[in-house]
Design brief:
10 helices, 75% helix
């Protein structure tokens, strides 16, 4: 897609996201998005068939980013360098920080998960559940791979660890949004990562 088209697509996504949060999913219409951006309806339909597809594009982008961050080839290439414990800790910390940052930066995703957007229907809820399953699965895969390499405690359950990490982060972010606190504060992110790493590293 040409750069201009990609920019327009992203403008549509960002505008719709804000409207979903402010006015609710059911009360937001394609026409309102068009009016806000001063574009024709046909422009939106070049990229999306309906407003659900806009919402799903947000989820897909987060899935892709986390999948890229937790890429197994990157992990395996790193191990081939015979890293020392300090390098391993930094690598795992950076990987985890980037994953959490990706979730934190999309408040619409958090609000969807906690059904805090008025008017979301069963189809949207089903897609959100698939999103949760997917990111939990690739996080568990990462935990398992690191555990196999001997850097995580042997007795941790990869699936449970992933659920606790993802679930804990999502709940924390939701509570910060609800209480209008700055979840992007560097100290908050560092605290999450530090607590997690101290619990799983050998």
């Amino acid at each position: 897609m040409p750069a201009k088209g990609q920019k327009r697509k992203q403008q549509i996504i960002e505008t719709a996201k804000d409207m979903f949060i402010q006015h609710g999913f059911q009360s937001t219409h394609i026409g309102q998005v068009c009016e806000k951006l001063n574009i024709a309806r046909g422009t939106v339909y070049q990229y999306f068939g309906n407003k659900r597809e806009i919402l799903y594009a947000v989820l897909e982008k987060v899935e892709e980013k986390i999948d890229d961050i937790l890429d197994l080839d990157d992990l395996r290439d790193f191990y081939k360098t015979n890293p020392n414990p300090k390098a391993i800790s930094k690598f795992i910390t950076d990987r985890l920080s980037a994953t959490i940052q990706t979730l934190i930066e999309e408040p619409v995703v958090i609000k969807l998960i906690y059904k805090d957007i008025v008017g979301i229907d069963e189809e949207v809820i089903s897609r959100v559940n698939k999103f949760l399953e997917y990111i939990s699965k690739i996080t568990a895969r990462d935990v398992e791979e690191i555990k196999k390499r001997g850097f995580y405690k042997k007795n941790i359950n990869s699936e449970v660890t992933a659920f606790m990490l993802i679930g804990g982060v999502l709940f924390l972010v939701y509570e910060f949004f609800r209480k209008e606190r700055n979840v992007l504060d560097k100290e908050v992110l560092e605290a999450i990562v530090s607590n997690y790493v101290s619990g799983v590293l050998k």
